[in-house]
Amino acid sequence: MIYSFNESRLVTVWSGFSTKWYGELLNNEQMLGAAWTSLRIAAMSATTALLLGTLASVALVRFGRFRGKTLFTGMMTAPLVMPEVITGLSLLLLFVTLAQSVGWPAERGMTTIWIAHTTFGMAYVAVVVSARLREFDRSLEEAAMDLGANRLGVFFRVTLPIISPALFSGWLLAFTLSLDDLVIASFVAGPGSTTLPMVVFSSVRLGVSPEVNALATILVGLVATVSLLGWWVMRRRELQRQLDMRRAQAQ
Fewer CB within 10 Å, N or C, the chain? Predict the structure, then answer.
């Protein structure tokens, strides 16, 4: 981050303070295009992984034992322990087979990367949300049902607001993993769908450019800002929840 303000092109030699590399970065259409592609894929895959991972967590925690639960649990946790090379190669073979048999996907691109990132992001979301659901106080849901709420209303008005910190954490984790992924994206990407890690990796093989330092500084700043904002929001909600509970106990 310090050397992103270095005037020299040599990233290890300090020659004076300058912000010219940020200007160079703004003129680098390839890197900016890759960054925009990565952000879109990360947002889409994190949102999809959040939906599927939450549903899987509810099934694993709330439905008790059911036929195929062991297999379902193994399939959900497999991406956590499987090497990325194996995951990327397996998905590549899957997409090639589907293209030859049914004609979809016609070519690899953002859609295939989105599916691939959702596949492993969903596993991380399921772990985070499942841990929160196991610690959930079921008496709150029972009290809401005693007051006339149906199961669907209880889930959306009681369960989801209480586990929202876990949902937010799972989404951020899936977003970060998608934005950071290089190996799997290299297998399933196609022409015109180059992600930011792929561009950075190809550029640093010829030497680290000051533009990469500038880009890394911007990303660190954005992530830090979002993390602090999320922590502030969750802390306010937790303090409000504790205040409401004390008020309810006082009454």
Answer: C
